[in-house]
Amino acid sequence: MADITRRLGWRHLRSTPTAHIRHHRDGKLVHDGPGLGFWFRPLTAALSEVPVEDRELAMTFRARTADFQDVSVQATVTYRIGDPALAAARLDFSVDPDTGAWRGAPLEQLGTLLTETAQQHALDVLARTPLSAALADGVAAVRDRVAAGLGAEPRLPATGIEVVAVRVMAVRPEAEVERALRTPARERIQQEADRATYERRAVAVERERAIAENELASRIELARREERLVEQRGANARREAEEAAAADQVRAQAEAARTVRLAEAEAARSVALARAEAQAAREVGEARAEAQAAWLRVHGDVDVATLHALTGTRLAENLPRIDSVTVSPDVLTGLLARLGDGDRG
Fold first, then answer.
1. Is the whole model's pTM more than 0.85, yes or no?
2. φ, ψ for residue 34 (rounded to 5)?
3. Over the stretch 278-298, which tens digit does the pLDDT of each residue have?
4. Sign of the Cα pseudo-torsion (253, 259, 262, 265, in order)
């Protein structure tokens, strides 16, 4: 909007660089261009302000597809007024000389024109497109058709309007239809998620089984090695026992041989000693026999009285060691008889 100030019946207008000002006085064009500033009399001036910057027109409208499904379209049209003089001639861009505000609503008229034209072409292309195709490729199809339709619309260049760009953000069905359409996709996603979960579980179970098999194989191998170790230890123990038994047998045989040798030596010594003792005893006996024989021979030549005397002498020699002497009547009688005979003789 132009900035207008008052000075003693005069007005001063100052516009922006994006506003094209047309000033007519008494039906003649006095000022024409963007970003102008000038003095004018309000009673004789006719002012128009035409914006020449790029403007965005957002639109949302509903359409129906070939299979009778309602969809909503969100689009934006970028446009600008390329010919301000033509636009000012076709649309009311006049401004109040006191306030600088538009007397009418020219931009709303332009918006209505662009929106209806764009909707016309969008509805036409969607009416021949099924819902599935509209959701899949509808954005590009609607954008191309609207851009082509606006470019071929004769009213736009006749009004001085240039279409810069057309953007279609979304083509969406109704909420119930969208939920219904999402259900199969969600089911597939859920199935894929479940399958992925099952596959992960299967992989985990397979890995656990492989780990268990490896552990079992390790235990079996360890048990087999322990069995071989036990067998080896048993064989070593048997070998040690056999070697110990052989050593004990050798020691026993050596001890037995030594014992036999000692016994034989002892027996030989005993035999020799017995023989020596027997020889000595035999010699002693023979000596005693000879002595006895000699004694007997000596005493045989001696008379009885001498023998009795010797006997009494021996008896007297052994009296301290004789506790008692028993003389039988026969011996006493004989002794007395002999003594009597001796006295008589």
1. no
2. -85, 150
3. 777 777 777 777 777 766 676
4. negative
Strands across the sheet containing 3-7: 3-7, 10-14, 37-40
Q: Residue ranges of the alpha helices (H) in 128-174?
A: 131-152, 155-159
Q: What DSSP designation does 306 have?
A: H
Contact of 126 with 152, CB cutoff 8 Å: no
**Nearest to 49, CA basis, from 103, 130, 109:** 103
Beta bridge partners of 128: none
Q: Supply φ then ψ for residue 237, to 5 degrees.
A: -65, -45
Q: Which of 137, 157, 146 is nearest to 116 (CA)?
A: 146
Q: How many CB atoms lie within 10 A of CB 51?
A: 20
E strands, the chain, in order: 3-7, 10-14, 19-25, 28-34, 37-40, 45-51, 55-64, 70-81, 161-173
In this structure, what DSSP letter does residue 320 have? G
Token digits of residue 207: 């890995």
Enumerate residues 6+ apart whose C-beta is below 8 A from 146: 75, 77, 118, 121, 122, 166, 168
Rounded CA-CA distance 321/13 in Å is 189
Give me the average pLDDT of each 10-residue run along the chain (345 residues): 85 91 91 92 91 94 91 95 92 90 91 93 92 89 93 91 94 87 83 87 88 89 88 85 82 80 78 76 76 68 63 63 63 66 53
Task: Give the single-character DSSP code of 33.
Answer: E
Report which secondary-structure segment, H or E, holds 199.
Answer: helix 175-301
Lookup result for tokens 């009688």? 333
Q: How far apart are CA 31 and CA 38, in angstroms?
A: 8
